[in-house]
UniProtKB/TrEMBL annotation, chain A:
Organism domain of life: Bacteria
Entry-linked InterPro entries: Fe-S_cluster_assembly_SufBD, SUF_FeS_clus_asmbl_SufBD_core, SUF_FeS_clus_asmbl_SufBD_sf
Example of a GO biological process term: iron-sulfur cluster assembly
Protein name: SufD family Fe-S cluster assembly protein
Domain SUF system FeS cluster assembly SufBD core: 120-334
TrEMBL record, chain B:
The organism's place on the tree of life at top rank: Bacteria
Matching InterPro entries: Fe-S_cluster_assembly_SufBD, SUF_FeS_clus_asmbl_SufB, SUF_FeS_clus_asmbl_SufBD_core, SUF_FeS_clus_asmbl_SufBD_sf, SufBD_N
Family: Belongs to the iron-sulfur cluster assembly SufBD family.
One protein family per Pfam: SUFBD_core
Organism: Sphingomonas parva
GO biological process per UniProt: iron-sulfur cluster assembly
Official protein name in the record: Fe-S cluster assembly protein SufB
UniProt gene name: sufB
Lineage, highest ranks first: Bacteria, Pseudomonadati, Pseudomonadota, Alphaproteobacteria, Sphingomonadales
SUF system FeS cluster assembly SufBD core domain segment(s): 219-461
Annotated TM spans: none
Length: 367, 490
């Protein structure tokens, strides 16, 4: 591996990142083997299932169906990490009028080394799909996904990062056509450091984009999300809802930008970035950025950082709820803000449960 | 009908293209040789009879500057600047010591009068008992020519001098604080300033003194190709208070003029400094030709308990503005405030905002920023709120609103929030909007012209900030907003 030329913190989009662990992980050998527990979501409509271990499809555990495995038609990226992905990966291409597919589930497990994988999702006119990706293991999982939604297409994408250690870096390039809808929700509730990059273009009239999630960090973990939503055509609507929780010496950083191009009138863009610090030594960084070149637009953002609301805690105490439980309840509600936006019920329930488990882990620590 | 409208629009555009205060005056200048080298730095220092330590300080800064690169992170399109193609020192020829303002070069006097500088003592507001006074330290090009009210200030123990005089008369005081807040290696432009600053103002308010009048400096860039490198240092000792006004107009020029000032404020225990700026330098013509480059480093250190610094700025001028008045809130219970109106028109570019660095317990800060973009301009708010791990119970409220006039301009908001203490309460809000048709229709139905209606609405939009200005400035600032917007609607 001679490829690791990593950006420094002096570069604006990497100012809150720490990539120092990557060269060491990249030099490791994978241990191999399939994880004992595979958290497939239980749902009535059995859609395609894919299990990748160290970037290779495990055929015995997978049922790709319509999802293509092999060379991915994807343009090279100049992103410092995403450019490492090769050509082999998975492709979901749905023609218009395709029968409902059921939930597409992809599990990425890493046994300790680095693997880089591209993915391509292309939904033709009015096609619909829901995809859930789950990340496990303790190596460096590096992904680049290119997503194209044609007129009226709808994609629900939800990702949960449950890896117990290591690094997960996910980059997305999304193009949304006229009247198409894209929602992306990411939950980081494992032990890995993460870097999430997104470039979402609303390229058609009246496109809809939603991108956000919940970042939960403890120990010395670092989560780092970097998102750009670009309104290129009029009447677009975008929502970015992020909730970060930092405990111990952990750091959560969210840089989210809304760009409104000249001529993209009647744009409605909204950002809500909230951070919660659970310890005296955690760090929350936020950068809610607006870049606006059209005058008839509605763009607003709100950002807050703080600890749990004292009034709410007092209320719980007055009702006889133990402090720890009250804290867990309030934190859970705080995180749920971002996760309840997931449209697919099975996925939403599972994500809320994962977040709950993370919070319970917090409780177990303090007891 | 449309012909009439077109003609009106053209006339409005022509009015806007002529800068009301664009004039130059001829005074014999003594220039430092063109270009920047160690010799230039030595020349400036020698010219000002500076002590050896000051020269060393400058040379150290110059050596550092040579190793630095101009910052490129701002959302600005800055044409390459040839630092060798400028004069770094221009002072009116030394006249015998002035006994009164009457002895001042009449040409300079006339320039001041044209600018409407209230240099006479008539600057007393009617109907106000115990009439407030304003002391003016007028900076003409690079050297302070006259300082009024010095005697009265002296009685109160306030030191209000040009910085070169202060270096000679109060070397210990200057040595102690100069570069404490903005160190010489701070950033490219501040370092350049440290090497070649020609003049500026020094203010020291002694313990427990409430400065008996508002202090003000009028800057004016006059000679062609003379970069202005002002240095301001204000130290408010324990329990003191001072309000300082800074305002500027510059004559019309074709070549770009560089301005890289440094302002350092220090507030000790229980001290308060209020620093207000109205900036109206030549913004260039409608096509963006000419205009001042304004690269300013302003920073305050709230070192003492309960200290407070309040920055208020109205920025309407300059072709390019790069300016972030900041507060380092080191003292317990210290307070930082930033109120800003930045208006850009034609092809102006502004990247401005603030930094609030919270280090002390219970420190609080408020940021209110109003950006107004018109024409083909770009207006960026860039701010940082940082809470250190030991700063308990920090409170910050930030509000940045942008108003867009026309569909060819840009409004940008780049806030950074970095929090390392859970007891902090940080809130940030931002909105972007345009003037609503309803508001405009209403104002016009009441008989206002479209331009007046827009000016009225813009003034309303900026009201929260304008209210913070001392009275002398508030009126001027309101007028300025109207003038700066001329030709941007219709």
């Amino acid at each position: 591996m001679t490829l690791l030329a990593l950006p420094s913190n002096r570069e604006e989009s990497w100012r809150w990142s720490d990539l120092s662990a990557l060269p060491e992980i990249a030099a490791r050998q994978p241990q191999g083997g399939v994880p004992e527990r595979l958290p497939w979501l239980d749902c009535a409509t059995g859609g395609p299932r894919l299990l990748f271990v160290d970037g290779r499809l495990v055929a015995a555990e997978s049922n790709p169906g319509i999802v293509g495995i092999g060379a991915v038609d994807i343009a090279p990226s100049d992103h410092a990490l995403a450019r490492l992905v090769g050509h082999e990966g998975w492709t979901l291409r749905l023609a218009s009028g395709h029968a409902p597919l059921g939930l597409v589930q992809v599990i990425h497990a890493s046994t300790g080394a680095a693997d880089h994988l591209p993915a391509r999702i292309e939904l033709d006119v009015d096609a619909q799909a829901s995809v859930v990706e789950t990340f496990l293991g303790h190596g460096w999982t590096n992904r680049l996904s290119e997503i194209t939604l044609y007129k009226g297409a709808r994609l629900m994408l939800a990702r949960r990062i449950l890896s117990e250690a290591g690094y997960v870096s996910l980059a997305d390039r999304v193009t949304i056509g006229e009247g198409a809808s894209f929602t992306l929700t990411t939950l980081a509730a494992g032990g890995a450091d993460t870097r999430l990059d997104g470039e979402v273009r609303l390229a058609g009239d009246a496109a809809y984009a939603e991108a956000g999630g919940a970042l939960l960090a403890r120990g010395r973990q670092r989560h780092d999300a970097n998102l750009v939503v670009r309104h290129e055509q009029p009447h677009g609507v975008s929502r970015q809802v992020w909730r970060s929780v930092a405990d111990d010496q952990a750091t959560c950083s969210v840089a989210a930008r809304v760009e409104v191009a000249r001529g993209a009138q009647k744009t409605d863009g909204e950002q809500s970035l909230k951070g919660l610090l659970l310890s005296r030594t955690g760090t929350i960084n936020s950068k809610p950025e607006l870049e606006i070149f059209a005058d008839d637009v509605k763009c607003a953002h709100g950002a807050t950082v703080g600890e749990l609301n004292r009034d709410a805690l007092f209320y719980f105490a007055s009702r006889g709820v133990p402090a720890e439980e009250a804290k867990a309840l309030l934190t859970g509600a705080f995180v749920a803000d971002a996760l309840e936006r997931i449209g697919e019920e099975a996925a939403r329930e599972a994500f809320l449960q994962d977040a709950g488990a993370w919070l319970a882990g917090k409780q177990a620590d303090t007891e | 009908m449309s012909d009439v409208r077109n003609r009106e629009a053209q006339e409005a555009a022509e009015r806007a293209a002529t800068y009301e205060w664009g004039f130059t005056s001829d005074i014999e200048q003594e220039f430092a040789p063109k270009g920047l080298s160690e010799d230039t730095v030595r020349f400036i220092s020698a010219k000002k009879n500076e002590p050896e330590w000051m020269l060393e300080w400058r040379l150290k800064a110059y050596a550092k500057w040579l190793e630095m690169r101009a910052p490129d992170w701002a959302k600005l399109n800055v044409p390459p600047i040839d630092y060798q193609d400028a004069y770094y020192y221009a002072a009116p020829k030394k006249k015998p010591e002035l006994k009164s303002l009457d002895e001042l070069d009449p040409e300079i006097r006339r320039t001041y009068e044209k600018l409407g500088i209230p240099i006479e003592e008539q600057k007393v507001l009617a109907g106000v008992e115990g009439a407030r006074k304003v002391a003016v330290d007028a900076v003409f090009d690079s050297v302070s020519v006259a300082t009024t009210f010095r005697e009265e200030l002296k009685k109160a123990g306030v030191i209000f001098l040009s910085i070169s005089e202060a270096i000679r008369e109060y070397p210990e005081l200057v040595k102690k604080w100069l570069g404490r807040v903005v160190p010489i290696h701070d950033n490219y432009f501040a370092t350049l300033n440290s090497a070649v600053f020609s003049d500026g103002t020094f203010v020291y308010i002694p313990e427990g003194v409430r400065c008996p009048m508002e202090l003000s400096t009028y800057f004016r860039i006059n000679a062609a190709n003379t970069g202005q490198f002002e240095r301001t240092l204000i130290v408010a000792d324990k329990g003191s208070y001072v309000s300082y006004l800074e305002g500027c107009t510059a004559p019309m020029r074709d070549e770009n003029q560089l301005h890289a000032a440094v302002v350092e404020l220090v507030a000790l225990d229980d001290a308060e400094i209020k620093y207000s700026t109205v900036q109206n330098w030549y913004p260039g013509d409608a096509e963006g030709k000419g205009g001042i480059y304004n690269f300013v480093t302003k920073r305050a250190l709230c070192q003492g308990r309960n200290s407070k610094v309040s920055w208020t700025q109205v920025e309407t001028g300059s072709a390019i503005t790069w300016k972030y008045p900041s507060c380092v809130l080191a003292g317990e219970n210290s307070v930082g405030e930033f109120y800003s109106v930045a208006l850009t028109n034609n092809r102006q570019q502004a990247d401005t905002g603030t930094k609030m660095i919270h280090l002390g317990r219970n420190s609080r800060s408020t940021i209110v920023s109003k950006g107004i973009s018109a024409g083909r301009s770009d207006n960026t708010y860039r701010g940082l709120v940082r809470v250190g791990p030991t700063a308990e119970n920090v409170r910050n409220f930030t509000q940045c609103d942008s108003l867009l006039l026309g569909d060819q301009c840009g409004a940008h908001t780049v806030p950074y929030i970095e929090v390392r203490n859970p007891s902090a309460q940080i809130e940030h809000e931002a909105t972007t909007s345009k003037i609503s048709e309803d508001q405009l229709f209403y104002a016009m139905s009441r008989g206002l012209s479209q331009e007046d209606a827009v000016a009225l609405i813009v003034n309303g939009f900026a009201r929260e900030v304008l209210q913070q200005l001392p009275m002398e400035f508030a009126v001027e600032a309101q007028k300025l907003l109207g003038i700066s917007l001329e030709g941007s609607v219709g």
